[in-house]
Amino acid sequence: MPGIPSLSLVEGAFEELATELATYLDGLKGEGSTVLSDITPLLADPEKAEGGRQETDKDGVMKKLVTASSALNNAPERELQAAYNLLIHLISQSEDPDTYLPHVCKYLTAPMTSSTHNGAGIALGILGTLFNTIQPDDETRYHVLLAIVDLIRNSGNFETLQPQLKNLDSWIEQWEIEPQEARKLYVAISSAAAATNESQESYIFLVKALRTVQDEASSPEARDLSLRALKMALQNEKHFDFQDLTALDSIQALRKSDETWSELLEVFSDQIYDDLQEFKEVNGSFITDNSLDEDVLDRKMRLLTLATLAAQSADTRTLPYSRVSKSLNIPSEDVEMWVIDCIRSGLVEGKLSQQKQEFLIHRCTHRTFGEKQWREVASRLETWRSSLVNVLAVVRQQKEEFIKEKEAELAGPEMRSGQGYRPDRRQRNFIEAE
Q: PCI domain: which residues (predicted)?
């Protein structure tokens, strides 16, 4: 992974390095360990070779070394990275590294018993080294990245991964993995982000995961992810756009499987505060039973209602305080506070007029963008086009008048020196005398 140190240089023949690692593992495992004696018959012995060098059974050696390497997590902290680097180097010399790398990833996501404080950071560095040694288009990188994300989730170190996420889509494209594999990675990243309260990042990757289940929109997994994403969107105080959810087939499928959740989504998509109160009355304890924060929902719904009022007043560009007070069910003296909060949320822009007791709208956000909004856009474009046509006509007229004035100015001297010119009598006498 970019930003994490690459593999340290390891020198020596495979047989020599395998013997070194086996000896080290025997030392870690203690009396009775037979790693070295197990691999020795599988290694080439130049002294016994006749007519050519005996070939090493690398596959057999690596199976025994990798199986025993779970003991590396007990190695002294100062030796951990070097020992794992040696193991990774040996795996890279085998005929099929993909067979062994998942085991190494599993070991590295387990606790480092010899380093309770720095173990996660060391393991992350080793996994990063491993990620860097693999070719960019090799699918094995996917499995290593999964281990990295798992480790980050358990250690609460999401900021380490965050800068690399901009490369994720290009990596997935290079690896050419199946949708379910991409979904597993997206969900893992979402969980890692949620573990460190990065709610917006968590939601983004959960929606990415949902986009991979469109062919299985009604499956139990799709339903579970859909409800999880919907709940996250509702509880996020800064999330106001629900169009990204309503466009998903798996969310649409909730109309059949989870009608109440679907109704709640519709309320937040395009309805107002009174509709939310009606929903709560009709559905009893649904909000509390599903661990939703009612105060968060009410506040978000008031802000969305204010945005709707502003959009409905787009023609007049003014929104009376009295209408805000009634629609949001708040005291008149709190109107300005709610308008300011709505401006801070990015839903509207404008100025408050205490004298006129109204909000002057400069810009507003449409919560839904359908046929009605497209007609409004078309109408405004037509008005703009007509204005431009009028402006163009005025410009052309001014241009024509300017050209005529210039022609008249140029014609003046020609008239004085052309056929219409007649010298006076004194000038005629002077000409005749000459």
A: 198-366
